[in-house]
Every structure is written in structure tokens, then in C-alpha cells.
Write a structure and sequence with these properties.
- By secondary structure, this protein is an alpha+beta fold.
- The protein folds into two domains: 1-131, no CATH class; 143-379, 3-Layer(aba) Sandwich (D-Maltodextrin-Binding Protein, domain 2).
- The protein has helices at 2-24, 26-33, 40-68, 100-110, 115-126, 158-163, 256-266, 277-286, 301-313, 321-326, 365-375, and strands spanning 76-78, 83-85, 91-93, 148-156, 183-190, 196-208, 215-225, 228-231, 248-250, 271-273, 291-294, 317-320, 359-362.
- The strands form three sheets. A six-stranded mixed β-sheet has the order 1-4-5-6-7-8, sandwiched between helices. It has a five-stranded mixed β-sheet with strand order 10-9-11-13-12, sandwiched between helices. A two-stranded antiparallel ribbon has the order 2-3.
- β5 (183-190) and β6 form a beta hairpin.
- The longest helix has 29 residues, at 40-68.
- The chain is globular and about 60 Å long.
- 44% of the residues are buried.
- The protein binds D-MYO-inositol-1,4-bisphosphate and calcium ion (2 copies).
- Residues 54, 79, 153-156, 158 line the site of one calcium ion.
- This is Inositol polyphosphate 1-phosphatase.
- It catalyses: 1D-myo-inositol 1,4-bisphosphate + H2O = 1D-myo-inositol 4-phosphate + phosphate; 1D-myo-inositol 1,3,4-trisphosphate + H2O = 1D-myo-inositol 3,4-bisphosphate + phosphate.
Length: 379
């Protein structure tokens, strides 16, 4: 399993390279930020390019994992569909081909013959990423890839990625919006039970290289299975137990009743807002917030699977909020944890894979209980 972890770190870095190239290369950047004006064909083309960046990243990950672990082919799922209809009404399936040239030719058919853009993307896809020093030596987990399946969110917080506001991150502080909220998320779960067991998060835009000014990323990973609980982020120091000091991060579009209830529980200074479902869970992992509460089914399995594995490795988790509100258990109730193997059968399309009961991401189950009891009867 350590081999799989090293591979996921590598492909996440390659994905981050593609995400950076789309902002760094003028020919690609123009497509990414172009205003949706002009005729319908132009609008559709620009829209397609934004989706194409996501699809290309997802397919790179799917391709590279499938090559090294053929037993996982068919079990690598993601947010995006790789079927496109180009401006001429032709249906194109985006895949990574055997050579850079073949991939460029295929991409050009989606990019309405823009060969410069297609070649730049193909080069990033076929280039080897920088070696990642992940300190995974000695890690051994009694699981085989044939027991696992994968969820990919190629870029989470796409709106922040496209808007592209640059924030200088301050150590120990949550920064609510900007490029750093965009994350590559790859999570592996057990096919049999749906438990998330391995997660890789790559933050392509963590800081700028002081020398050259280019963006540099940061990666985070975690493994949680049986007695093995290892995370690249060390557990933040616990503050005194109890309600005091509890801090929460929410989506700015969260329901008013949740905002009010948590303001009285945490105090106005300890209630924060941030973009990106993945980024909010990363804030909990890093200890920048204690919990992330979401009362709606607006996140999906690909948003939570990877960061959930890291939280489990730290002794926390991600609970289904609706189930938690119904649970009578006084201790940690494993029945309420999100799982990743089964669709929500009443949902349609992407909603089949939504975390439809909402969620609470937490490091400490006492804090989960405080949140749940404060929200009981309010939703
Ligand atoms: C989105 C993205 C949004 C989030 C939403 C996710 O994923 O993370 O930012 O909303 O839940 O599904 P919010 O920022 O209000 O939490 P994507 O960018 O991949 O569509
Ligand atoms: Ca997402
Ligand atoms: Ca996405």
C-alpha cells in the first residue's frame, strides 16, 4: 500500500503541475479567464476549456494509477465525465494517449484546433513531476490495491482557481478565499465497507518561490487502517476540553439558523468562513478550525474522501450531520461516519454521490458532540 501512496502523491503533483501550467502559460490562461461574452459557440468553447482542465487532470490520475495498478482499473472514479462534444458537435472522449503528440492531437479536437494550447497541455501531462519527498519509509499497511477504489476531485474550489486571487498565507491563520483554496483531492476507500483509508491532498498554489516568483505547492497525506494511523500533518495541540474555545468554519452560503447557533456556541470571533469544501476540511486537519459544519447536501464523495482519511488518521472523522442528529449514542458512533461505496439512491445524476445529509468534519469527537447537541431540533 505504501507503493500506492507514493504513486498518488506523484500523480497529485503532476495534476498540480497541469493546474499551474494552465495559469502560467499565456495561451492557456487566456482561455481560462476569458469572459463568457460573444456568440454561443465562443461561450461554449470557453466553458469547455474550464471543464477540460479538470477532465485532463482527472484522466492523468486515472491513467497513471491504472498503468501501475491494473487491478484498480474500473474502480477509479471522479467528479468529471471524460466525454466532450466539441464546437462541431463531434463527441470526443478525452484520454491520455501513449505519446505526447497523440495526446496533443486528441486535445486539439476538443480545443477547436487550438494546437498551441493542446501542445502545452499535452507536454504537462506527459512530463515527469518533481520527486516528492514524502517520508513514507517503513510504512506498511496490510491491504492490497484490489481491495480499494478511488475518488478524485481534480480541482476543488474551481471558482477560486479561475478567479485566481493571490493571498500571502500567514502561518497558523485561515485565509478565506483565493488561489490557495484550490486543491487536488485523491482518496482511496475500501470497496467492501466504504471506509476512507488513504488520502492525498495537493495544494498547487501554496506560496510563491521568493527567487523566481513561480507558484509552489504543498502536499498532505494520511493513512488510516486498523492499527496504522499515520498523517503527514501532526495533530494540533489540544486546548483545554469543553465548549470554550471551539472554533468552526462554514460556507458563506450556510443557513442562517446554523450561523446563529454556532455564533452562540463558539462566539463571533471563532466562527469563520472559507471557500472550498476540501479547503475547509484541510483547515480542520491543520487545526486552523476545530470543526467544519455543512447542513446541506452540496458536497460530494470526491470532495470529502481524501481529507476524511487524514482526519481519521488524526483520531477524528467526517460524520453525516442528519444521521448524527438522530443518533442517541453518547460516545463515538461509527455508524454516522460518511462512507464512499454506495450511492444515494434517491438522488439523480451527480446527486447520487452527494453527501446528502450534510456533514461535520472534526478532530475530536467531544467537539462533534457539542456541535450536534447545539444543532438538535434546529434543522
Ligand atoms: C465545490 C467547491 C465549493 C463548495 C462546494 C463544492 O466543488 O468546493 O467551493 O462550496 O460544496 O462542491 P463552498 O465553497 O460554498 O463550500 P467544485 O469547485 O469542485 O465544484
Ligand atoms: Ca469539489
Ligand atoms: Ca472539482
Amino acid at each position: 500500500m505504501a507503493d500506492l501512496l507514493r504513486l498518488l502523491l506523484r500523480v497529485a503533483e503532476k495534476a498540480a503541475d497541469v493546474a499551474r501550467v494552465c495559469r502560467q502559460e499565456a495561451a492557456l490562461f487566456e482561455l481560462l479567464v476569458q469572459e463568457k461574452t460573444g456568440d454561443d459557440k465562443n461561450k461554449k468553447f470557453v466553458q469547455d476549456f474550464k471543464t477540460l482542465a479538470d477532465v485532463v487532470i482527472q484522466e492523468v490520475i486515472r491513467h497513471d494509477v491504472g498503468v501501475q495498478f491494473p487491478e484498480m482499473v474500473g474502480f477509479i472514479h471522479g467528479e468529471e465525465s471524460n466525454k466532450f462534444e466539441n464546437g462541431l458537435g463531434e463527441s470526443v472522449t478525452v484520454t491520455v494517449c501513449g505519446t505526447e503528440e497523440e495526446t496533443a492531437t486528441l486535445l486539439a479536437t476538443v480545443l477547436d484546433g487550438n494546437h498551441t494550447a493542446a501542445s502545452l497541455l499535452a507536454r504537462a501531462i506527459h512530463q515527469d513531476p518533481a520527486t516528492i519527498d514524502a517520508h513514507t519509509e517503513g510504512l506498511s499497511v496490510p491491504l492490497s490495491p484490489s481491495e480499494l477504489a478511488i475518488w478524485i476531485d481534480p480541482i476543488d474550489a474551481t471558482s477560486q482557481y479561475i478567479e485566481g486571487r493571490e493571498e500571502a498565507l500567514e502561518e497558523g491563520h485561515l485565509s478565506p478565499s483565493g488561489l490557495h483554496c484550490a486543491l487536488v483531492l485523491i482518496g482511496a476507500y475500501l470497496r467492501s465497507t466504504g471506509e476512507p483509508v488513504m488520502g492525498v491532498i495537493n495544494q498547487p498554489f501554496n506560496h510563491k518561490d521568493p527567487a523566481g516568483g513561480a507558484w509552489r505547492g504543498k502536499h498532505f497525506w494520511g493513512v488510516s487502517f486498523g492499527d496504522v494511523n499515520v498523517c503527514s500533518v501532526s495533530r494540533p495541540k489540544d486546548r483545554p476540553a469543553g465548549r470554550q474555545g471551539l472554533s468552526a468554519v462554514l460556507s458563506s452560503s450556510e443557513k442562517q439558523v446554523v450561523k446563529e447557533t454556532l455564533t452562540s456556541l463558539c462566539g463571533p470571533d471563532k466562527l469563520m468562513y472559507a471557500s472550498g469544501a476540501g479547503y475547509k476540511i484541510l483547515c480542520v486537519i491543520q487545526g486552523l478550525a476545530d470543526v467544519y459544519v455543512l447542513s446541506e447536501g452540496s458536497t460530494f464523495k470526491w470532495d470529502s474522501c481524501a481529507p476524511h482519511a487524514l482526519l481519521r488518521a488524526l483520531g477524528g472523522g467526517v460524520a453525516d450531520l442528519t444521521k448524527s442528529l438522530k443518533s442517541n449514542s453518547a460516545g463515538q458512533d461509527h455508524q454516522v461516519e460518511l462512507t464512499y461505496h454506495q450511492p444515494y439512491t434517491e438522488g439523480k445524476g451527480a446527486d447520487r454521490w452527494s453527501n446528502h445529509g450534510g456533514l461535520v468534519a472534526y478532530r475530536d469527537c467531544c467537539q462533534l458532540r457539542s456541535i450536534v447537541s447545539a444543532l438538535k431540533g434546529k434543522l
